[in-house]
Amino acid sequence: MKSAYELAMERLRKKDAEEGRVETPLTDEQRAAIAEARSLYAAKLAEAEILYKSKVSAAFDPAQLEELAENHRRDLARIHDDEERAVAKIRLKTKD
Fold this sequence. Notes:
Distance between the termini: 41 Å
Helix content: over 70%
Largest sheet: none
Oligomer: single chain
Order of helices and strands: HHH
Structural class: mainly alpha
Number of strands: 0
Number of helices: 3
């Protein structure tokens, strides 16, 4: 018996085929580039976290803490978006 995941994946593949989308496997170069990009953005996230904690430890004003938290959320969202765009760009590159 197929799991719910397998059934959902079959439906998605069928829908993609009906819409003309073709699944192309990633090349080794693309896999390596994606791994490198993910590593780079993991480092950026770690750096942002360290900077945020450093700033929070020096702040005492609740308004300033709230502003730091909001800026941190915005920075994390930007880093995640940048990562997803970088990975999507790599995925779109075709073999030459």
